[in-house]
Every structure is written in structure tokens, then in C-alpha cells.
Specification:
mainly alpha; 47% helix
Length: 64
């Protein structure tokens, strides 16, 4: 199985605080990704993925 890891994120555009947070989280993320890819029989990515979550807000406002 061939898996492609990619991102369009521009890491140069993040704040200093966010960069420090990502650096602190790197070892936890690396360990989790290694475990998940091994369990799934996948090749590990060349770099740690940065995963974000976005949620919509204002459903009631949008309805109005």
C-alpha cells in the first residue's frame, strides 16, 4: 500500500506561540503516528503531520 502524506500549510505564517506549541508536541505526535502506521501496516510519513480542526459556528445566525 502506498500512502501520500502532503500539506498545503504555510508554516512560516504561524505565530511564535503556535510554533513553540508544535515543537513541544512533536515527540507525542511522532510516537502516536508511529504506533498508528505500524498497526495499520502503513509506511511512516517522512515528517510529522500537523493536524487541525475547524468547526463552523453561528448556525442560528446563518439561519436568520
Amino acid at each position: 500500500m502506498n500512502v501520500k502524506w502532503s500539506s498545503n500549510a504555510n508554516e512560516q505564517g504561524i505565530s511564535d506561540g503556535e510554533q513553540k506549541y508544535l515543537e513541544r508536541r512533536a515527540s507525542s505526535v511522532e510516537s502516536a503516528v508511529k504506533t498508528l502506521t505500524q498497526e495499520a501496516g502503513l509506511e511512516a510519513p517522512k515528517r510529522n503531520p500537523v493536524i487541525g480542526m475547524s468547526m463552523s459556528g453561528g448556525g442560528y445566525r446563518a439561519m436568520m
